[in-house]
Amino acid sequence: MAREGSVKYLQKAKSEKNDEFYTILADIERELSHYKKHFKNKVILCNCDDPKESNFVKFFSMNFEHFGLKKLIATHYKEANLFTREPPYKLEYTGTKRGKRMPDPNDFMKAMIGTGDFRSAECIELIKQADIVVTNPPFSLFREYVAQLVENGKKFLIVGNWNAITYKRVLQVLA
């Protein structure tokens, strides 16, 4: 259960139709600590998480060895336009910190072909590589996001508004 402060931020982001909501690290630590045995030797995908900003990425990279992860993949979405300077990128991390407590994301970044949209062919290929998807998906695309995970037979742990589980399409997908 998210802390009261993060619930307020979540509700505000939803009401403002702001899909850029970053889950606070304390909430991630509190929730994901219960799943340690499920993550062992797994490829984790955070496909709606900017690797440079995401607390999910921070949590998994700091706890990579502790959880016994096989690989961490995270993708960055960047809407395509004429003024885009930095292309979308993905992080592929296999546990090498090069002597640092936290890995430097720039050491593990690779440019993406498209925009990094979770619906793109490139990102669907990453879903197929993953054992478990862990993220905070865009509010406006929540139903479509869950449907895609179920369609691809993926285990997932996603953060969202409690009301999302009552959406007709989400219930149909999860049934």
Give a written overview of the molecule.
Strand 5, helix 7 and strand 6 (155-158) form a beta-alpha-beta unit. The protein has helices at residues 4-15, 25-32, 36-39, 55-62, 64-67, 121-129, 142-151, 168-174; strands at residues 43-46, 71-75, 89-93, 109-111, 132-135, 155-158. Helix 7 (142-151) packs parallel to helix 8 (168-174). The chain has one domain (4-174). It is α/β, with parallel strands linked by helices. It is globular.
Radius of gyration: 16 Å
The fraction of residues in strands falls at: 5-15%
Extended strand count: 6
Could you give the order of strands across the largest sheet?
4-3-2-1-5-6
Structural class based on helices, strands and sheet pairing: alpha/beta
Total count of helical runs of at least 4 residues: 8
Shape verdict: globular
Largest sheet: 6 strands, mixed
Low-confidence stretches: none
Q: Mean pLDDT, rounded to whole units?
A: 81
Integer tally of domains: 1
Order of helices and strands: HHHEHHEEEHEHEH
Helix content: 25-40%
* Ends apart, CA distance between termini: 23 Å
Which short descriptors sum up this protein?
6-stranded mixed β-sheet, globular, 8 helices, 175 residues, alpha/beta, 6 strands, 35% helix
Quick take:
The protein is an alpha/beta fold and 175 residues long.
